[in-house]
Amino acid sequence: MTKLTRDDVLRLAQLARISLNDDETTEFTDELSAILQYVEQLSGVDVSGLKPTNQVTGLTNVMRIDEVKDYGYAPSDLLKSVPKTEANQLKVKRMIG
Amino acid sequence: MADWEPIAELAAQVRSGKAKAADLVEKSLAEVASLEEYKAIIATTADRARARAKQIDAQVANGEDPGRLAGVPFVAKDNFLVFGADTTAASNILKGFDAPYQSTVIEKLEAEGAICVAKANLDAFAHGASTENSDFFTTLNPHDKTRVPGGSSGGSAASVALGIAPFALGTDTGGSTRQPGSFVGIVGYKPTYGLMSRSGIVAMASSLDTVGTFARDIDDAAVVIDVMAGQDELDSTTIDRDAAGYADVHGDLKGKKIGIIKEYMGEGLADDVRVQIEQAIAKMREAGAEVSEVSLPSVSLALAVYYILCPAEVSSNLSRFDGQRYGYTYADAANLDESYTKSREIGFGKEAKRRIMIGTYVLSSGYYDAYYKKAQTVRTKLIQEAAAAFKPVDILVGPAAPPTAFKIGENANNPLAMYLADVMTVAINLIGVPAVSIPCGASSKNGLPVGLQLIAPQRNDRALLELAKATEEIL
């Protein structure tokens, strides 16, 4: 039975790039443990001889010609909801100090 | 509450000039305003809807044909990219997102003359079964304002039940169209996985997401499904349409083989729901259907499979909401990493965070095989059991949800209890088959609607609509 600790939750939050306050950390520690315990009922299920399903309708390798198509959108249309842009590119905070 | 003619009739009136698209749009917008207390709608697309109506009326005046859905107003769940209003997915992080292009299915509906008038409320990012996880507000059930309309497409379902528009779009990843359809007493249709393009819809769990249709009856749903179905080069999972299409369906239950899913009629099903489902099945038998019991022995595991696969795919799909590309961004971040973590902390609601964290856990190194791969393998088991169950029958039947609409707040503090609201629907998404919830009377306990779920094998959407239509006629 998986029981997450506060440190586990904080580590997960870091991996998921979400900061959590103290109350949320406490709440998630209990809730996520309960959810994981629920889904762990699968651990005892016999699946010998079965392969995992990745696609349900049996499609394989859907191909198309690799060509640029004009859908009629200017870069400025596509960038209009980006918080910060410069020269038609996303502008983000400095990554390397 | 407004009454609407059947969709085909409405469009015929607009095409012949007998009715004006502009009047239909005004009627719909007036309903949005007068029914505001139900909080079904996040925003209208009024300006664009009026402009489109004018265009359609002008086309008719010029002798042109605006299409099979000419002037018919509809409501789209706010996770469809639509021009004329923000697309928020009912989340704070996408507030202010003005879509640069539209969903393929919206384009297809517009090409036939349909007019989107408003964006409907949902559980943020479609994570939920009640609309209580909306970052903005909870939609009220049209039959009882103290209860939820179901979810996640609760705003869309309530819109149709309230008469705001004759049809609405939802999405169905684990039951988000069938369950709210049943909670408000209308038709909620989930197609075969891949039958309709998801391009331009805010992704939740990509191996499960489908486009849902809400309408008052099967005829109305069928014409909308017929317009939306088919391959799209922008969604590589889409499949071919049925050569016969999906509209103008007529069916007969005589000699049809119906399999009752034994496990869905057992423990956990509310007595008042059971009575309605059993009565509906008895009527199907009277109409000449051969009814038998079938078993999906592992179906009780479906919810556990779903709550591994869905959060895993959610955590991946929601990684794009990083405060840099769209919507909300935390202004005072000292560096890029803080910009990510604070934008996501403030922008995401609790359920989105919960699912991202679970998904991150089950996909993390060392746990992948035990959780994700195991769930995908149990999914294979479910698919095989469903294939065996379908062999002797034409369709499967069962309830769409274990209780009728629950009270607002009843499950709010217990995420696991909320997840159980999906227990009759998630397996259908895991096996990728089409299913529909149709109204089958009201509970004798509280007068609330009950939904009968009909399920067909993959790509048998037309046959499902035919049998649903025949069933609707005798209920």
- Classify the oligomer: heterodimer
Strand arrangement within the widest β-sheet of chain A reads 1-2
Query: What value does the Rg of chain B take, in angstroms?
Result: 21 Å
Q: Mean pLDDT of chain A, nearest integer?
A: 92
**What pattern of helices and strands is seen along the backbone of chain A?**
HHHEE
What is the molecular shape of chain B? globular
**H/E order of the elements of chain B?**
HHEHEHEHEHEEHEHEHHHHEHHEEH
CATH topology of the domain at 7-228 in chain B: Amidase signature (AS) enzymes
State the CATH class of the domain at 6-43 in chain A.
Mainly Alpha
Question: N-to-C terminal Cα separation of chain B, in Å?
Answer: 24 Å
| Largest interface in this structure | A-B, 51 and 72 residues
Structural class of chain A: mainly alpha
Please give a structural write-up:
The complex is a heterodimer of chains A (about 100) and B (about 475). In chain A, about 35% of the residues lie in helices and about 5% in strands. With about 100 residues, chain A is mostly helical. Chain A has a domain at about 5-45: Histone, subunit A. Chain B has about 475 residues and is an alpha/beta fold. In chain B, strand 10 (about 435-440) and strand 11 form a beta hairpin. In chain B, helix 2 (about 20-35) runs antiparallel to helix 3 (about 45-60) and helix 9 (about 300-315) crosses helix 12 (about 370-390). Chain B has a domain at about 5-230: Amidase signature (AS) enzymes, CATH 3.90.1300.10. Chain B has an eleven-stranded mixed β-sheet, sandwiched between helices. Chain B is globular, with a radius of gyration of 21 Å. Classes of the chains: A mainly alpha (about 100), B alpha/beta (about 475).
